[in-house]
Amino acid sequence: MSFFLEAVIQGVFIGAVYAVITFGLAVLHSVSGVLNFAHGNFVVLSMFLCLILHEHLNLDPYVAGIIVTPVMFVVGAALYKLVFARLATASTLTVIQATLGMMFIIEAGLLMTQGGQFKRIPSMVDNHDVAFGGLRIGMDEIVAFLGALLLTGILFWVLEHSVFGRSVRAVQQNGRAAQLVGVNTERIRVLSFGLGIALAAVAGVLLVPGNSIHPSQGLNYTVIAIMAFFIGGMGSYIGTLLGAVALGLAESLGAVYLPGSIGFALPYLIVVLVILLRPNGLFRRSAAA
Amino acid sequence: MSLEVSDLSCGYEGQTIIHNVTLRVETGGFSTILGSNNAGKSTLINCLSGVVPATSGRIEFNGVDITNIAPHRRVRLGVVQVPEGRQLFSDMTVVENILMGAVPMGRIAKVELADRMDQVFALFPRLKDRRRQISGSLSGGEQQMLAIARGIMSRPKLLMLDEPSLGVAPLIVESIFEALAMLNRDGVTILLVEQNLALSLRYAASGFVLERGEVVVEGTSSELQSSSKTRRAYLGM
User: Fold this and answer.
1) Which pLDDT does position A1 carry in this prediction?
2) Residue to test with chain A: of B103, B105, B139, most A Cβ within 10 A
3) How far apart are CA B19 and CA B40, in angstroms?
C-alpha cells in the first residue's frame, strides 16, 4: 500500500513540474502557433547554467535559478525577435525545422562545452528526506512540487485576470482582432516567448536537485511536454495541467507495477489511446461559434 | 481636424486593390463607403487601421501622419475599427471582450473603467444581462453590439464599422444604427462600410462610392441617393 502511495505521490509531484514545462510550450504555441521542438532543450540549458553558476560561484541551484530564470526570459524574447518574428509568414514546416535546428544547436553546444558525462549539482535540500506516515519523500521533490504549484497558480491568475493575460488569450483567439482593439501584438508575442522559455527554465531549476543532468535529456522533456499538451487539448491550461499529471502518474506507476521497459512505455501508450479515442484531446475548449 | 486620405493605394502581396483613393471625413461627421462586393471597401478601412499596409499615398488623422504606424498605435490615437464578422474573442465572456477594448488606455483607475463599462451598457442594455456569457454563444445581433461595445471602450474619435448589419436581424439592425447615431451625436466621427445602400444613406450625412478600388462618386447622402452613378456602381450595371 505504501508502495502504491509513494508511486502516486511521486507521479503527482513530477507531473506538476511537467505541467510547468508544458505551460511554457503552450504559451509559445498560443501566441504564435509555433510548436517548439527545442522546448526541453531550454529546460536542460537552464540546468547547465545552474551547473556553471555552481562551478564558478558555488551557488546552490535554487539561488542560481534567481539568475538563470530572467536570463532565459531574455533568451526567449530574443528568440522571438531574431527567429520567429521573421518566420511569421513561413510555412509550418519551416518553423518546425527552425525549432529542430535550435534543438541540435543547444544539445551539441552543451555536449561540446560540458562533455557527455552525467553531472550532479549539490543542493541544500540533498539528504533531507521528510518522513510522512510510513513514507519518505525527498525534500527536493517537495520543493519542486510546491514550486510548480505556486507557479501554476500565478500563471492561471495572470492569464485569467491581468491585462497581459487577457491580451495573450486575445492574440491566441484572434490576432487580427487583437490588433484592431489596440493590443500591441508583437509586444505580447515577445513577452510570451520570454515567459514560455522562463517557465521551462524554472522547471529545469526545480529538477536539478536530486537528478543527474545530461546534455541530451532535452528531447525527453520535449516529448513529455508535447504529449501533455496534446492530451490536454492544445489550448486549455487546465487540460494541460491534468495531462501532465496523468503522464507523471503513468510514468511512476508504470515503473513500479509493470515489468521492465513496458513500464516506461506506459505514458506513450496512454497518449496513443487518447489520440485514438479523443483526437482533440481530453479538454478541448469549445471551438469558435 | 479630420481624417484625410490622399492618393492612397494598398493591397495584398503583388495585388493592388485600392487605387489612388482620396477622401476626407470631417470631425463629427457620419460618412459611408458604398460599393458592391469586391469593390475594396474592407481593404480600404483595413488599410486605414494599419492591418493592410499602404503601398503609396498618405493617411492623416487630425494632422498626424499615420500612414505607416502600427495598428495598435492608431487605436491609441483614436482610430478604431469594428471589423466585418465581429471578430470577437469567442472563448471570452462578454465582459472580458469589453475589457479588451480598454487595453489601449493602459493603466486606468477601476472607477473610470467601471464608469465606461456603465456607459457601454447604457447604450446596449442587452449586453449587461449577458455579461457573464461566453461571447460565442450570443446571437448575431448581440455579437455585433458587443463588437461595437468593445470598440468604443477606449473612446475612439473615429469609429470605422465594416458591415455591421451583416447577419443581424432587421429589427436589431435598426437599434444598432440608432446607437451609432447616438455615438455620432456625442461627437464620435463615424465611417461606415455597408452593402445596405438605403440603410446607410438614411443614417450617414455623406458618402463615397467605391468601384474596383477607386472612388467614383462622392457627395451628400441625398446627392448619392439620386445619382445614377451610385446605382450603377452598386448594382454593377
Assistant:
1) 59
2) B103
3) 10
Contact of B226 with chain A, judged by CB distance below 8 Å, is answered with no
Number of structural domains, chain A? 1
Residue B25 lies inside a defined structural domain of this protein: yes
CA distance B143 to chain A (A): 11
Decide if pLDDT at A262 tops 70: yes
Helix (H) or strand (E) holding B186: none
In a domain, A245, yes or no: no
C-alpha cell at B67: 500612414
Interface contact A181-B96, CB threshold 8 A: no
Residue B170: domain span: 2-90+156-235
Cross-chain CB nearest to A173 (options B51, B80, B90): B90
Alpha carbon distance A184, A274 (integer Å) = 37
The CATH code of the domain that includes B83 is 3.40.50.300
Q: How near does any CA of chain B get to the CA of A159, in Å?
A: 12
In a domain, B47, yes or no: yes
pLDDT given for residue A67 in this prediction: 97
- In chain A, which residues have their Cβ closer than 8 Å to the Cβ of B134? 286
Picking from A35-49, A186-200, B110-124, which range would have the lowest pLDDT averaged per residue? Answer: B110-124
Position B98 in a domain: no
Of A93, A73, A82, nearest in space to A33 by CA: A93
Domain annotation covers residue A247: no
Partner residue opposite B103 with nearest CB, options A163, A186, A289: A163
Q: Do B83 and A176 touch (CB under 8 A)?
A: yes
Closest chain A C-alpha to B153 CA, distance in angstroms:
9
pLDDT-based confidence at residue A237 (cuts at 50, 70, 90): confident
Q: Kindly report, residue by residue over A92-106, the tens digit of the pLDDT.
A: 899 999 999 999 999
| Alpha carbon distance, N-terminus to C-terminus of chain A | 48
Closest to A282 (Cα-Cα) out of A248, A238, A233, A237? A233
Total number of domains in chain B: 1
Nine-digit cell string for A156: 492561471
High-pLDDT (> 70) share of chain A, %: 98
A171 CB within 8 Å of a chain B CB: no
A182 touches chain B (CB under 8 A): yes
**Best of A163, A181, A237 to disrupt the B interface by mutation (most B CBs within 10 Å)?**
A181
- Residue B201, pLDDT > 70, answer yes
The residue segments making up the domain with residue A8 are 2-220
Look at the pTM and tell me if it is higher than 0.95.
Answer: no
Q: Is residue A170 part of a domain?
A: yes
Is B21 inside any structural domain? yes
Work out the average pLDDT over B33-43. 88
Task: Quote the Cα angle for A61-A13-A155, to 5°.
Answer: 75
- Asked whether residue A98 is domain-assigned, the answer is yes
Question: What is the C-alpha separation between B163 and B230, in angstroms, rounded?
Answer: 18
